[in-house]
Amino acid sequence: MLGGPVVCGGGSTAAYGGTTHFALAGTTVAYETVSVENKYGQSPQDEWMVVVRDLRTGRTLHRVPTGLPLHPEPGYIGVGNLVALVLESDGSAAWIADDYQRTLGVATQREEPYFDVWALDSTGSRQLAAGPNIDPSSLALSTGATQIGREHHSLEGTTVFWTQAGKPFSAPLN
């Protein structure tokens, strides 16, 4: 079992949690786990994680936060919910997360969707891009691309693509 659907709690606890955004590649699966709990009179415990598992063995290959917050706070792990997730069969993954602190205007004093692009591969997790001008529906994965836009390139391995400010960007996954 990968986890349950997102459910909400009530009473003196404002809580929700579950598993969302599944990606399958061969016998490897990636998904987001969410756990948000705000008990009356206690500090919040909010966690957004990306999990990659081998379905043959059930072994967890990776479990990492959806990103690093602008201003880390106790009880918060990750930057917020995923809006896109892609996966390679070797366990490499990339995602776009809605960065809740920046979206809610912690840095800009205005509410504007702000997205982070992250990659996870054999070298670990790393941020590829961030900003309010990332197209959250643009995330794509390619193996062995030969043409990108109008330019001809030969790319070995897996490459993740996204659009920012109307321009295409890419990064290799190792």
Give an overview of the whole structure:
This protein has one helix at 100-103; strands spanning 7-8, 13-25, 28-39, 45-54, 60-65, 76-77, 82-87, 93-98, 115-121, 124-131, 140-143, 147-148, 151-152, 158-164, 167-173. It has 174 residues and is mainly beta. The chain has one domain. Strands 1, 2, 3, 4, 5 and 6 form a 6-stranded mixed sheet that branches. Strand 7 (82-87) and strand 8 (93-98) form a beta hairpin. It starts with 6 loop residues before the first strand and ends with a strand. The model has no long low-confidence stretch (mean pLDDT 83).
Write the layout of secondary structure elements.
Blueprint lengths: L6 E2 L4 E13 L2 E12 L5 E10 L5 E6 L10 E2 L4 E6 L5 E6 L1 H4 L11 E7 L2 E8 L8 E4 L3 E2 L2 E2 L5 E7 L2 E7 L1
Parallel strand pairs: 4-6
Antiparallel strand pairs: 1-2, 2-3, 3-4, 4-5, 7-8, 8-9, 9-10, 11-14, 12-13, 14-15
